[in-house]
Amino acid sequence: MSHSLITPSAVSHTGTPALEIRGLGKTFPLGGLFSRDSVRALHGIDLTIGKGEIVALVGESGSGKSTLARCVARLEKPSSGEILIDGVDVLKRDRFQASRAFRSQLQMVFQDPFGSLNPAHRMDHFLRRSLAIHGKSGRSERETQSRLEELMTTVGLQADMLNSYPHELSGGQRQRVAIARALAVEPQVILADEPTSMLDVSVRIGVLNLMRKLRDEQGISMLYITHDLASARYLADRTAVMFAGELVEEGESLDLLANPAHPYAQLLVSAVPDPARAGSYDPVRRAELRKAVMASQHCAFHGDPNQVCSSEKPVRHQVGDPDNHHWVRCHLYRPWAAAGGHALASEPLPPSHPASNAQEEASA
Ligand SMILES: Nc1ncnc2c1ncn2[C@@H]1O[C@H](COP(=O)(O)OP(=O)(O)OP(=O)(O)O)[C@@H](O)[C@H]1O
């Protein structure tokens, strides 16, 4: 088993990526004007999304997922780093705010479809507005109407629902309209921040299938933000795990979620209902971790403060076959122990280490 360290650029994708995030950081000042307190919500994020690819970003509440989405969508100003869309650094191109060109390239779909639709307007209004702001100019009324109906059909809704008000639609239908509105501008990238978490379980799958269809048929790239690992496995080509504002593991979804190498990823996976791992979920441990993530600026798994974890940032290690682009950033990773299961499973951690429980559960 080779013990290889990899750099971000070693994770190769063919062609110019749809979205490339390089060294993105975000620090929020806390307290008043003269306070020096701050919270580091993001640190050194490198993430690449190829054309026609869906990448899931998973992590606990407070790990920084929404801050990353808001920075990439230019709703929040990053403290450092670069954001490239189709190879162009949009932070340099549009220095002060997102331009119309940027909004045409990248659209966001939020968690709450109702919150983003004014109840006084019909669906027709929302879609026409997006077409007018970002769409191709010079469309006749007939062409516009035809495009509106096409958008409704694309997202699986009846064209006559263009006359409906938001309250007349179900949550799933409203989320489809939100997606249609994003599609109206013909974006290259959609950032979907927990797009199904407020929907009934029965309609979630329909929205996920719609996102899949848009990738497969229109080549749209997506950053899918979720805390639901099962949906990440179902939808995303690759999954990236965010922990305390940093990406700690990334790989092809099926591989990463079957063989998580970082103790935090192992803990997340252990919480997914799976009859094969009955009894492995420890809610108390998970609640402790959540608290640690919210409070700590360090890796909550560092345990003994004398360990290397608390003093040095870990480098990336390749996990398994180099072709699967699966890496982990953790001092505790033992590549030579990774074959056939959890990377950390056969090399015990010190009993005092907070990750020990997760390791025992994962290898049980
Ligand atoms: N405007 C803000 N001011 C100060 N701190 C912030 C602000 N926005 C986010 N944070 C902090 O940044 C960290 C990351 O928050 P963020 O909302 O990005 O996490 P998240 O993973 O998206 O969580 P959730 O799933 O609950 O939305 C948290 O510690 C949060 O308290």
UniProtKB/TrEMBL annotation:
Could you tell me which residues belong to the region Disordered? Answer: 344-364
Q: Which CDD domains match?
A: ABC_NikE_OppD_transporters
The residues covered by the ABC transporter domain are 19-269
Concerning Pfam families, the annotation shows: ABC_tran, oligo_HPY
Q: In what ranges is there compositional bias, type Polar residues?
A: 354-364
Q: Which GO terms describe its molecular function?
A: ATP binding; ATP hydrolysis activity
Organism domain of life? Bacteria
Keywords assigned by UniProt, alphabetized: ATP-binding, Nucleotide-binding, Transport
Is Nucleus one of the keywords UniProt gives this record?
Answer: no
Cite a single GO BP annotation. transmembrane transport
Q: Under which name does UniProt file this protein?
A: ABC transporter domain-containing protein
Q: Which organism is it from?
A: Paenarthrobacter aurescens (Arthrobacter aurescens)
